[in-house]
Specification:
heterodimer, A: 37 strands, B: SH3 type barrels, five-stranded antiparallel beta sheet, about 15% strand
C-alpha cells in the first residue's frame, strides 16, 4: 500500500490545509468570542468579550483550571492567543508555546536562540503574538520579526528590523492588518530613532517604514534642536489598533531621548509622546496628536489606543479613549485627531490643565530644581502600558491607575551627558517588599478606575494597597478581570467596582487577561510571575 | 559520557548551534583541522572537556568563551554528540538540484513540509540537514521501518475512543492522563485518556521505502538535497528603504546572523547635556521602570 503512486494521488487532497485565521475573521473577532485572535482581542482594542457564562452571580465558583510554568527567569507579560482550542503564548524572551487551551498540555515549543549580549532597558520580555492564516508573528528582543508555522512551530521567515547593539528591540505583539504585519521598535532608553514598519505576512518583505522622529526636510524635524533627532527615541512597545472603515492604524509613541534632559532636544519633539494615525497600505501619516511636548518625565504615550463609537454631544462619533501616562484622560476624534476632551484621572501637578487644543499648560511645580520638586504623577505615570478596557454595555472606560509622585531635581552639570545610568532589568516577579512592610501612603497606591468618557468623571474607583501593572478585561456579563502587583487575580463587578472573587497566584501580575471558550466552557487566562494561570467555573 | 539523548535535546542544541556555532563550525567542519563529526575534539573529548571548551573558549585559538545556561550547554553537547554518533565513511553526495526536483515530483510534499509548502502529516523537513547527517537520511529513505518507526519525531498512533471514533495521527506529546497529536486532518488535537478505548503505536512507518524505486544516483541526489535543508533561508531584504535611516535601524536579513548597516555615527559622539534632571521614585516601590 505504501507506494509512491498512492502518495502522489494523495497529494492533490492534502497538500494545503485551510487557513486557520482569515483576514475576515480578524475583522469579525468580536463576533467569535471563543477565540482570542490578537493582542487586545479585536481591532478596536477594547479588550471586551461577549462571553457571558461567568457572571457576577457565579464568579464565586471560579477555580484555577491549569497553570503553565515558564522555563524563564523573566516575568511573563504576554497576552496569549486562542484559536479553535489551541493557545499560543510566548515565554520570555522569545519562545512560543502551543498548548491545549482546555488542559494546558504542550503541542510544541518554538525556541528562538536569543544572543547572550542582548540589552533592553527594562527586561527581556515579550507581550505576545499576531496570527494570520497558519502563521504566527513575533518580534524579538534583539530586533527581529519572525514568522512561525502555527501548526508545528517551524520558522518560516526572519527579518532583522534594527540592530540591538544600538538598542533596537521588540517587546510588543505585532498587529496584522490585511496582508501585512505591523510592528514598532522599542529602545528609546538607548537613544534609538523609533519607527513603525509593515511587512508582507507571506514573505516578510518590507512594505513601508514610518520614522516616529522626522528627519531633515520632513515636517516635524524643526521640533528637534540640532541633530538631536538622530537618536530622538520615539519607540513603541505596545500594540496599535485599526479602523477598517477609516483605513487607519493608530499607534502610541513613547518618550524622547534623553528621557530627562529636555534642553538638548529643545522643541516639541514630534512625534514622541503622541498618538499617530497611519495609512496601513503606505505608512503615510494622516494625523497626530501630541500629549506631552518636550517631555522631561518619561511620559510615554505607548498606551493601547482604545477605539469606541459613542454619542458625543448629540451625534455618533468615532473616538479614541486614552488614559495617558502624563495623568490626563483624553477623548480624540479618530478620523481627524481633533482633541475633544481631557481631564486628569490622577493627581497632576506638572501641568495646570489642557488648553482648547489639548496642549498641556505647564506648571512651575513640575520643573526640576536643585532642591528637588515633588511632581505628580511620578515617572511611572498615572498609568503606563497596562492594557485598558472599554465595555460597550456599561459605556465605561477602565484603566489601571497609579497615584504616586517623583522627586525631580537637578544634578550638578555633568559632562557625562543626559542619558540616565544603567536601567534596571525586569524585576523578579516575587511579592516581597523587604524584611518589613514599610509601605506608606506617600509611596503611592494603585487603583482600577471606571471613567465616563463623556465627562472624565469616575463612576467608581477600586483602591489597592500596592500599585498594579495588570491590564483589564471586561465581558458582556459586566465582569471586570484584572490582577495586581500583590499577585491577586481579581474579579470585579464592572458596574459597581465591587470585588466578587480573588485568587492569589504567588507572582506579580504584569500582563493582561483574556477570555475564551472550549467545548462550551468559558475560561479566563492571565500571566502571573513566571506562569500562566487559567481560571474557569467549578464543575457542577 | 551520556549514552543517548532525547530528540528534543538534540533539536534544541541544533537551533543553538545554528545561531551561535554554525558561522565558524559550518557543517561541523568549518574550522580547518576541526571536524566535530569525528567524535574527536581539540580540547579533549569528554563531556566536561567539550563543555569547558564552549564555556571558556580554547586559549590560543579563535574559539571564544560563550555564556550559555546549563540546559543550553547540555543541549549543545547533545547535538555535537549526535553529529559524531552518525558519522561514518563520507558518502558520495549527489546533485541537490536534481534531488529537489525528485522531492517535488515524487509526492514527498503529500506528507512532509519544507518551509511553507507541504503537509503536516509527517516530520517537517525544513531543518533535516541540520538535525541529521546524510547517512541517517539515506537509511531513513531506504529502510524507514527500522530507522523511523517508534522514533519520537515520527511516532504514529491509532486511537479508538470509547464512542468508537478512530483517530490516527502523529504523536507530539503525551503524559499519564492526556495525549497530544497532529491528526491526519492536520489539526492539533489533545485527548483525555479516560475517553479512549485503545491507543496503539503503529509499528510500520508510513514512510515508503525508496529502495528499488529510485536509482542509487537518484537516492544520492535526494540525500544531497535534504542535507541542504538546514534552516529557513534568510530573507533577502534591502538594507535600507523609505526615509533616511537612523542609527542601526535598517532592515537586514539574517537568522540571528545578519546585522543592519554600519552606524551612521558612533555613540561616542553623543551630544553632551549641560544639565541633567534625575527623577527618583519613592524608595519603597519595587518593580523598576518600564521602557
Amino acid at each position: 500500500m505504501k507506494t509512491l503512486c498512492a502518495l502522489a494521488l494523495f497529494l492533490a487532497v492534502v497538500t494545503t490545509s485551510s487557513a486557520q485565521v482569515s483576514e475576515q475573521q480578524l475583522l469579525d473577532a468580536v463576533s467569535a468570542p471563543q477565540n482570542w485572535l490578537m493582542y487586545s482581542g479585536s481591532y478596536q482594542s477594547q479588550r471586551y468579550s461577549t462571553l457571558s457564562q461567568i457572571t457576577p452571580a457565579n464568579a464565586k465558583d471560579l477555580e484555577i483550571k491549569w497553570v503553565f510554568q515558564a522555563d524563564s527567569v523573566q516575568k511573563m507579560e504576554a497576552t496569549p492567543l486562542v484559536v479553535n482550542g489551541v493557545m499560543y503564548v510566548t515565554q520570555p524572551p522569545n519562545d512560543i508555546i502551543a498548548l491545549d487551551a482546555k488542559e494546558g498540555r504542550v503541542f510544541w515549543t518554538y525556541h528562538y536562540p536569543v544572543p547572550t549580549d542582548v540589552h533592553l532597558c527594562c527586561g527581556l520580555v515579550n507581550r505576545g503574538l499576531a496570527i494570520l492564516g497558519n502563521t504566527l508573528f513575533m518580534g524579538t528582543v534583539n530586533g527581529h520579526l519572525l514568522a512561525v508555522d502555527a501548526k508545528d512551530g517551524h520558522l518560516l521567515w526572519d527579518v532583522q528590523l534594527g540592530d540591538n547593539q544600538f538598542g533596537y528591540g521588540i517587546t510588543e505583539a505585532p498587529l496584522v492588518v490585511k496582508d501585512k504585519v505591523i510592528v514598532a521598535m522599542a529602545g528609546a532608553e538607548s537613544g534609538i530613532r523609533g519607527f513603525v514598519a509593515a511587512f508582507s505576512a507571506q514573505t516578510g518583505a518590507p512594505v513601508w517604514k514610518f520614522y516616529t522622529v522626522p528627519g531633515p526636510g520632513e515636517p516635524g524635524n524643526e521640533t528637534w534642536k540640532g541633530d538631536s533627532w538622530e537618536r530622538g527615541g520615539g519607540s513603541s512597545w505596545m500594540t496599535g489598533s485599526y479602523d477598517p472603515d477609516l483605513n487607519l492604524v493608530f499607534w502610541g509613541i513613547g518618550n524622547p531621548w534623553p528621557d530627562y534632559d529636555p534642553e538638548i532636544r529643545a522643541g516639541d519633539n514630534l512625534y514622541t509622546d503622541s498618538a499617530i494615525a497611519l495609512d496601513p497600505d503606505t505608512g503615510t501619516l494622516k494625523w497626530h496628536f501630541q500629549f506631552t511636548p518636550n517631555d522631561r518625565a518619561d511620559y510615554d504615550s505607548i498606551q493601547v489606543p482604545v477605539l469606541a463609537d459613542i454619542n458625543w454631544q448629540g451625534s455618533r462619533r468615532k473616538v479614541i479613549l486614552w488614559a495617558n501616562r502624563n495623568g490626563f484622560f483624553y477623548v480624540l476624534d479618530r478620523a481627524t485627531g481633533k482633541f475633544l476632551h481631557g481631564t486628569p484621572f490622577v493627581k497632576v501637578t506638572w501641568a495646570t490643565g489642557l488648553d482648547e487644543n489639548g496642549r498641556p499648560i505647564r506648571s512651575p511645580k513640575g520643573e526640576a530644581t536643585l532642591e528637588g520638586n515633588q511632581v505628580f504623577p511620578g515617572i511611572q505615570g498615572g498609568t503606563n502600558w497596562y492594557a485598558p478596557s472599554y465595555s460597550p454595555r456599561t459605556g465605561l472606560f477602565y484603566v489601571t491607575a497609579w497615584q504616586d509622585y517623583s522627586a525631580v531635581y537637578l544634578k550638578q552639570p555633568s559632562p557625562a551627558g543626559g542619558a540616565a545610568g544603567t536601567m534596571p532589568r525586569s524585576p523578579l516577579p516575587n511579592l516581597a517588599r523587604g524584611p518589613l512592610n514599610t509601605w506608606t501612603e506617600e509611596a503611592g497606591h494603585g487603583e482600577i478606575q471606571a471613567i465616563d468618557p463623556h465627562t472624565g468623571d469616575k463612576k467608581w474607583v477600586f483602591k489597592m494597597d500596592d500599585v498594579s501593572d495588570s491590564g483589564i478585561l471586561t465581558t458582556a456579563s459586566d465582569l471586570l478581570f484584572t490582577g495586581n502587583r500583590e499577585g491577586y487575580f481579581q474579579v470585579l463587578d464592572a458596574r459597581t467596582g465591587k470585588l466578587l472573587w480573588r485568587a492569589t497566584t504567588g507572582g506579580q501580575m504584569a500582563a493582561a487577561p483574556i477570555t475564551y471558550e472550549v467545548d462550551g466552557k468559558q475560561y479566563v487566562a492571565m500571566c502571573a510571575g513566571h506562569a500562566l494561570f487559567v481560571f474557569g467555573l467549578r464543575a457542577e | 559520557m551520556k549514552q543517548s539523548y532525547q530528540q528534543f535535546e538534540i533539536d534544541r542544541g541544533a537551533a543553538l548551534y545554528s545561531s551561535n556555532c554554525e558561522e565558524c563550525h559550518a557543517d561541523g567542519s568549518g574550522v580547518p583541522g576541526v571536524n566535530l563529526r569525528t567524535g574527536q575534539f581539540p580540547a579533549g573529548s569528554t563531556d566536561e572537556n567539550i563543555i569547558s571548551a564552549i564555556r571558556n573558549g580554547i586559549p590560543g585559538t579563535m574559539m571564544p568563551p560563550h555564556e550559555f545556561a546549563p540546559a543550553d550547554l547540555s543541549a549543545l553537547l547533545a547535538y555535537v554528540r549526535s553529529l559524531a554518533a552518525d558519522h561514518s565513511t563520507p558518502m558520495k553526495m549527489g546533485d541537490p538540484e536534481r534531488g529537489k526536483s525528485l522531492f517535488e515530483s515524487h509526492g514527498c510534499f503529500s506528507c512532509h513540509r519544507v518551509g511553507d509548502k507541504g503537509s503536516y502529516a509527517a516530520l517537517n523537513l525544513s531543518d533535516i540537514g541540520l538535525l541529521h547527517p546524510p547517512s541517517y537520511i539515506e537509511r531513513a529513505l531506504l529502510d524507514p521501518d527500522s530507522s523511523l518507526a517508534g522514533a519520537p519525531e515520527s511516532g504514529q498512533l491509532r486511537i479508538v475512543t470509547k464512542q468508537g471514533r478512530v483517530i490516527t495521527g502523529r504523536r507530539l506529546n503525551d503524559d499519564t492522563y492526556t495525549i497530544q497529536l497532529m491528526d491526519d486532518r492536520q489539526n492539533l488535537v489533545s485527548l483525555d485518556r479516560s475517553d479512549l478505548r485503545s491507543v496503539t503505536n503503529v509499528e510500520e512507518s508510513p514512510m515508503p521505502s525508496l529502495k528499488g524505486k529510485l536509482t542509487d544516483a537518484q537516492i544520492s541526489d535526494l540525500v544531497a538535497y535534504l542535507s541542504t535543508l538546514r534552516s529557513t533561508p534568510a530573507l533577502a531584504a534591502p538594507a535600507q528603504f523609505g526615509a533616511p535611516a537612523g542609527v542601526g535601524s535598517g532592515f537586514g536579513g539574517g537568522r540571528g546572523r545578519g546585522r543592519g548597516p554600519a552606524p551612521a555615527r558612533s555613540r561616542a559622539s553623543a551630544p553632551i547635556a549641560p544639565q541633567t534632571t534625575q527623577p527618583t521614585q519613592p524608595a519603597a516601590q519595587p518593580g523598576g521602570r518600564q521602557e
